[in-house]
Design brief:
Layout (H helix, E strand, L loop, with lengths): L6 H4 L6 E2 L5 H11 L3 E6 L2 E7 H11 L9 H4 L13 H11 L3 E6 L2 E7 H7 L1 H27 L3 E5 L6 E7 L2 E4 H6 L1
Parallel strand pairs: 1-2
Antiparallel strand pairs: 2-3, 4-5, 6-7, 7-8
Helix pairs in contact: 6-7
């Protein structure tokens, strides 16, 4: 069935968007107001980029010194975009998103943005992919647990306070530091 459903059938047509020169503080406010994790930068139906929560956090911590009101969205937004056409099947869109490790894609026709599709939109119409993903996560989690228990028998792990976050957990030596799994994931 998912081969017959097209991106144009399920995309969000009334997506949240701002002009590329909008400052990051206003973008963040718009995202909060609309309860979205990303915002499209467009001007006269022409796509200029996508700004995500991660982009704003990056700018806040690395670029602004705490003041994001002086930074425009176009300065930090991703401009190298992967786009879909409305006639693309959901299955094909999902494949593209997975291979490129993205969670959202603008839908473009004749160089004009007409919609926006997210993983959440796809899961609504293909709920089986969510269940398949959850099953894979459970298998991976169990495999990781088994691997950790085998490693701990060899003495490679230590249960103590993490040198990064201070939480008491099972630690592993990474770059000369004893850190927990959560801090390893953030690296």
């Amino acid at each position: 069935m998912s081969e017959r459903i097209r991106v144009g059938d399920v995309m969000t047509r009334n997506f949240v968007h701002v002009k590329p020169d909008t400052n990051l503080l206003d973008c963040a406010r718009e995202m909060i107001k609309n309860r979205v994790g990303s915002i499209v930068l467009k001007d006269n139906d022409e796509l200029h980029g996508i700004l995500t929560e991660k982009d704003i956090i990056w700018a806040l911590t690395k670029k602004s010194g705490g003041d994001i009101s002086s930074i425009s969205a176009k300065d930090v937004a991703n401009k190298k975009l992967i786009v879909a056409k409305p006639e693309t099947s959901l299955k094909e869109a999902l494949s593209i998103m997975n291979s490129k490790k993205i969670r959202r894609m603008p839908v473009v026709t004749n160089k004009k943005i007409i919609g926006y599709i997210t993983m959440k939109d796809i899961v609504k119409f293909m709920p089986e992919i969510y269940e398949e993903g959850r099953a894979f996560e459970k298998i991976k989690e169990e495999t990781d647990k088994i691997q950790r228990s085998k490693s701990s028998l060899k003495g490679e792990f230590l249960e103590a306070p993490c040198e990064e976050c201070g939480n008491f957990d099972i630690l592993e030596s990474v770059d000369g530091k004893m850190i927990c799994e959560s801090c390893q994931d953030e690296m």
